[in-house]
Design goal:
The complex is a heterodimer of chains A (about 110) and B (about 110). Chain A is mainly β and about 110 residues long. Chain A has a domain at about 20-95: Immunoglobulins (Immunoglobulin-like), CATH 2.60.40. Chain A contains no helices and eleven strands. The termini of chain A are far apart. By secondary structure, chain B is an all-beta fold. Chain B has one domain: Immunoglobulins (Immunoglobulin-like, Sandwich). Chain B is about 0% helix and about 60% strand. Chain B has strands spanning about 5, 10-15, 20-25, 30-35, 45-50, 55-60, 60-65, 70-75, 85-95, 100, 105-110. In chain B, the strands form two sheets. In chain B, strands 2, 4, 5, 9, 10 and 11 form a six-stranded mixed beta sheet that branches. The mean pLDDT of chain B is about 90. Classes of the chains: A mainly beta (about 110), B mainly beta (about 110). The interface of A and B includes residues 49 and 100 of A.
Chain lengths: ~110, ~110
């Protein structure tokens, strides 16, 4: 069966420090991968999505970047965190065909202090 | 913004009552999906309705889709305290596929 792992669950980082969040998927191949951010009590904002290794689409200009070094690995990074980067980050995958649902990781609560 | 919008933002009901949440969106879609999120957790898929479907059922869930009005509704019948969560609609835009755009969600509280 397919599973998605996202870590860490919580993270407190100082302003100006780097960030690396990792997401891996098991049990499927060539998934579409996504990073979303959720502000407290709000909806999900799509940050990045990837349809294949090395293929990254950015949805909003920001202080973050994403990479997909392997088929089932998706990494969210920042060189220098800002206070506004705080939030709940969610990784998700969708099988690359039409009309299928997304499967989400458990999320990372990032607090930039 | 392509983002869908749900209403109400918050809904408080008693166990046994029905809960109805609405979603509006802006452009043509391949499908519309509803997800549930317990506090501080990831989202769980509930139901998907394709653009050529008008109504779909799954257990106590009923979803309708009106593409002419660009709107959808999620009905939870005979609600339970365990249904307390946030509910989000997500649209898969027909300009591509599998790029889900989420609304702001409805926070549902079901009181025993």
């Amino acid at each position: 069966s397919q599973t998605i792992h996202q870590w860490p669950a919580t993270l407190v980082q100082p302003v100006g420090s780097p960030l690396s969040l990792e997401c891996t998927v098991e049990g499927t191949s060539n998934p579409n991968l996504y990073w979303y951010r959720q502000a407290a009590g709000r909806g999900l904002q799509l940050l990045f999505y990837s349809v294949g290794i090395g293929q990254i689409s950015s949805e909003v200009p920001q202080n973050l970047s994403a990479s997909r070094p392997q088929d089932r690995q998706f990494i969210l990074s920042s060189k220098k965190l800002l206070l506004s980067d705080s939030g709940f980050y969610l990784c998700a995958w969708i099988q690359g065909r039409r009309n299928t649902e997304a499967f989400f990781g458990q999320g990372t609560r990032l607090t930039v202090v | 913004s392509q983002q869908g919008e749900e209403d109400p933002q918050a809904l408080s009901i008693q166990e046994g009552e029905n809960a109805t949440m609405n979603c509006s969106y802006k452009t043509s879609i391949n499908n519309l999906q509803w997800y549930r999120q317990n506090s501080g957790r990831g989202l769980v898929h509930l139901i998907l309705i394709r653009s050529n479907e008008r109504e779909k059922h799954s257990g106590r869930l009923r979803v309708t889709l009106d593409t002419s009005k660009k709107s959808s509704s999620l009905l939870i019948t005979a609600s339970r305290a365990a249904d307390t969560a946030s509910y989000f609609c997500a649209t898969d835009y027909s300009g591509g596929y599998n790029k889900l755009i989420f609304g702001a969600g409805t926070r549902l509280a079901v009181h025993p």
